[in-house]
Amino acid sequence: MIKPVVSWAFLLSGVASLIPAEETDPPRPNILLIVSDDQGYEDLGCYGSREAKTPALDRLAREGARLTSFYAAWPACTPSRVSLLTGRYPQRTGTYDLFRNDRVDDGYRYSEIEYAISPENVLGTDLREVFLSEVLAKAGYVSGCFGKWDCGQLRRFLPLQQGFHDFYGFTSTGIDYWTHERYGVHIMRRGDARSKEDQGTYATDLFRREAVRFLHQNHAHPFFLYVPFNAPHSASSLDPEVRGWVQAPREYVDLYEPGKNSREEKRRHYLAAVTCMDAAIGELLRALDEYDVARRTIVIFLSDNGGGGGSSNAPLRGGKAQMFEGGLRVPCIIRWPGRIEGGTVCDEFLTALEIFPTLLRAVGAEAPLGTVIDGFDMLPVLQGEQSSPRREMFWQRRGDRAARVGSWKWVDSQRGSGLFDLREDAGEERDRAGERPDILEMVQQRFSAWQEDMQAAEPRGPFRDF
Ligand SMILES: [Ca+2]
């Protein structure tokens, strides 16, 4: 009689090796994180715009969740993006202002030598900060960044030193879309090296091309693809004809009616840049389909802060750089097939600080040891299983301050102040400070407590002294 034990064991091990890894161990999701730059809250078809042509973003919203009370951590570029990639308040990371030379405002032309030692070129996010790309690299992900980096320009601050394996883009906070110069200084890079290979080609087309190449090369591995567009930010050009306007290819400008005045024409170019970016996003979504990885890829889209020149933040008050909702509340769409129901509209109180912990949980990675994360996993909220655990959020930009506690929003800024009840007044039109001194005091106390918390945090450069 044959003893079955050995043969069963043999058979089992033989069978196990025949089962594709996919069936025994579900593959970890890929991540496509897309950021637009200064896009207005209203400037997407799926957010109610009758003007903006955004078929790809509208598709993403139909297939995922559209968030309507989602906030950036800061009302302008650099700190917003660093907070997105670290899950931490700007005051905690030490990147709580722009890496930007003030003299670019008056059209001053820097020489290469002068620019090299200017604050804009030498400031960078503290190297002790742990970027999402670093955590994902440890978890075995291959990561690419194509677009606007804006977290520091010296070699030690660049994407390849923060966990990314592939980088093409510019490192400053803005450029001319065609010359890739920032007020006259050329700034595009491939990897760590400056590259003029594509000078004269529209920036959005380049970031699309590089992101598609990355997908072609890496779709078979778990990947993190970060595409921070500079569109539809206005151009950082010394040319007075271009300066402060959004550049866009003629074919996209022609999709919109000519403006009757300069303001309308400026908006026309802005909308053209939005639609060109949307076409690039559409190509990335199609690439995910073609490589058959869309069903296991989390796609997140958000604007880094409220809309700037040429945009519409309606029905919100104010815009970029302001503490009113128009500066802080931004469009955000999240698609995760099989986990988030298509067509979801989520009005829960959520912020960009939630993205880092949500993605860590999604891929099964641990938060960096000893690092305070200011957000939480928001998947159960997007699935409608629970209401948002977020009760409060705070913003500070130089002397301007704001806090949201529950549905109350307190603003204290150069552009205006007041206490607003967002439940009935998302447009922040009716100041309730006089009527509700009790609420005002409560919100101000919460703000002070947050400030104390930030002061007690381990200090980080480049802005905080220690
Ligand atoms: Ca921005």
Provide a concise account of the structure shown.
The protein contains 15 helices and 18 strands. With 466 residues, the protein is an alpha/beta fold.
Model description:
- With 466 residues, the protein is an alpha/beta fold.
- The protein folds into two domains: 25-387, 3-Layer(aba) Sandwich (Alkaline Phosphatase, subunit A), CATH 3.40.720; 391-459, Arylsulfatase, C-terminal domain, CATH 3.30.1120.10.
- It is built from 15 helices and 18 strands.
- The protein has helices at residues 4-18, 21-24, 55-63, 77-86, 90-93, 112-116, 119-122, 132-138, 203-218, 250-253, 262-290, 325-328, 355-363, 379-382, 437-456, and strands spanning 30-36, 65-67, 70-71, 142-148, 166-170, 181-182, 185-186, 188-190, 193-194, 223-228, 297-303, 332-335, 344-346, 350-351, 392-397, 400-405, 408-413, 416-421.
- The strands form four sheets. It has a ten-stranded mixed beta sheet with strand order 9-8-5-4-10-1-11-12-2-13, with helices on both faces. Strands 15-16-17-18 form a four-stranded antiparallel beta sheet, with helices on one face. A two-stranded parallel ribbon has the order 3-14.
- The longest helix is centred in the middle third of the chain and has 29 residues, at 262-290.
- The N and C termini lie far apart (79 Å).
- The protein binds calcium ion.
- The site of calcium ion has 7 residues, from loops.
- Residues 37-38, 76-77, 233, 304-305 line the site of calcium ion.
